[in-house]
Design brief:
Order of helices and strands: EHEHEHEHEEH
Low-confidence stretches: none
Number of strands: 6
Number of domains: 1
Shape: globular
Largest sheet: 6 strands, parallel
Radius of gyration: 16 Å
CATH class: Alpha Beta
Strand content: 15-25%
Oligomer: single chain
CATH superfamily: Flavodoxin domain
Number of helices: 5
Length: 185
Amino acid sequence: MQSKVGVIVGSLRKTAFTRLMARALPELTPPSLKLTEIEIGHLPLYNQDLETESPPPAWTTFRSEVKGCDAILFLTPEYNRSMPGALKNSLDVGSRPWGQSAWSGKPAAIVSMSPGALGAMAANHHLRQVLMAVNLATMPYPEAYLSTVGTLFDDSGRLQSEETRQFLTTFLQAFELWIRKLQGG
């Protein structure tokens, strides 16, 4: 059985490393996982005043897309030692209205990346805190912190680092097992 994995890219920039990584992952992913990107850049900021009988259509579509996934994979850069605001907003939008969270109970994993040496470790851990609060079951191990991410891609945007390709293949295999375990398989 193939599991549908929603991929949330934390950066809105067209040429972001997280977006390049989202394009690279399908060829490293086990056949039992189908990766589907869920866009977050069009989501209005969460405002409970808009949570009426007719919430913004972008919220409704987003929540439906998340609910339609079996698991969620987050790709995040680090902004000021935390996750980007657009990523946090998507978590808030998906967690509402109260008692109807689109995230609840789904398996999740995080790949954080940075041009710096720490691989967005602070963003990864801040994101983990929020995922716990919205009841996403985040894979505890292996953790994925990709440092010096600017050196991992060639000029055409292809992931060229064989070591990183192997690590991510192993990471995605572990995520496949995590999903299966939480689905009772």
